[in-house]
């Protein structure tokens, strides 16, 4: 079950049952509690007593402006051992079970060893790359890691990303033997490249992607990503706003094929995590719902466009907008409702009519009440029920606004 459909969080709900070494059975849940003593704007991973429903401890989450975006499972214990977060870049943290009646009696010092493993991995890839632990062996002694960057990396044989094998060796042997180990030791740990993800890009100049925070006109902070053409080869570059779909989705830092294609052709690219994007907490999603899709959400995109012009990232008249699906709707919305801003628009499989004005979707989604309810929450009551309001918000019915030179 996706959390954004149930309570406004982001990610996948999970429930991990276990019989602890104490008398009580427990369950660990990944949810987003919006009210009560455990309320948190971002998702959390909490432990409860199955019999009494008493809250025992918070294991992870509750971070400011970042939901838990993933879990890495230890196949020996069948439990999560890492959690991931994603703000400007993805990070991984050890999921500590110390003090919960688990882990410490079976694997002394396991948390410290896992922390040391992560430190070793992070020092290997440095700040120029992000990584994900995508698979672990049944003994947890070898991990498969995918690491990538925005540009080509020597560690990946000239590719922007690659698959690596991490051999824990001494650390995993210590866990099995229940013997302490110096945390400064990296003896036996090694990382080796299995295969690069895009070897055909070796030798090509790619653009650098930088996180950028922009204030919307109402003060809301928007995390964006600016990608520049490589090595300033192109002077006075035009800029393209690239709008993600969803709207419950988000852009992240790393290699993006379309972004790099455009950078290679001399364009700056600015990606916008508008209100309603996922991963930044329940409040940020909620303020993008209930009709905001055609008002304040689109104003976010306009504000970022104006920011780009005012900060000299592009000259007025050298700005384009591109997007797919809901991003395609946003691109067409910009073209039809703010034709003074954009010189060009590319809409990929876009939504052209919304709510009560969208006759095709009524037929397509007629068998899915959950999808219908979701879009009613996005569109709001007026656009969902009133055809005039829906037509006013639909690019298809406002093409006369488009300016031609």
Can you describe this structure?
- Residues 4-8 and 171-185 have low confidence and may be disordered.
- A hairpin with a 5-residue loop joins strand 3 and strand 4.
- The protein has helices at residues 3-6, 110-125, 170-177, 257-264, 282-286, 296-310, 326-337, 359-364, 369-385, 387-392, and strands at residues 14-19, 25-31, 44-49, 55-61, 68-74, 79-86, 90-94, 130-136, 142-148, 161-167, 190-196, 209-215, 221-227, 239-243, 268-272, 319-324, 344-348.
- It is globular, with a radius of gyration of 24 Å.
- Helices cover 24% and strands 27% of the residues.
- The longest helix is centred in the C-terminal third of the chain and has 17 residues, at 369-385.
- Strands 12-13-15-14-16-17 form a 6-stranded mixed beta sheet, with helices on both faces. Strands 1-2-3-4 form a 4-stranded antiparallel beta sheet, with no helix packed on it. A 4-stranded antiparallel beta sheet has the order 8-9-10-11, covered by helices on one side.
- With 405 residues, the chain is of the alpha+beta class.
- It is built from 10 helices and 17 strands.
In short:
The protein is an alpha+beta fold. It has helices spanning 3-6, 110-125, 170-177, 257-264, 282-286, 296-310, 326-337, 359-364, 369-385, 387-392, and strands at 14-19, 25-31, 44-49, 55-61, 68-74, 79-86, 90-94, 130-136, 142-148, 161-167, 190-196, 209-215, 221-227, 239-243, 268-272, 319-324, 344-348.
Biggest sheet: strand arrangement: 12-13-15-14-16-17
Radius of gyration: 24 Å
User: What value does the average pLDDT take?
Assistant: 85
Number of strand elements: 17
Structural class: alpha+beta
**Helical residue percent band:** 10-25%
State which percent range the strand residues make up.
25-35%
Count of helical stretches: 10
Largest sheet properties: 6 strands, mixed
Question: Which residues sit in consecutive blocks of at least 5 with pLDDT less than 50?
Answer: 4-8, 171-185
Order of helix and strand elements from N to C terminus: HEEEEEEEHEEEHEEEEHEHHEHEHHH
Distance between the termini: 49 Å
Give the overall silhouette: globular
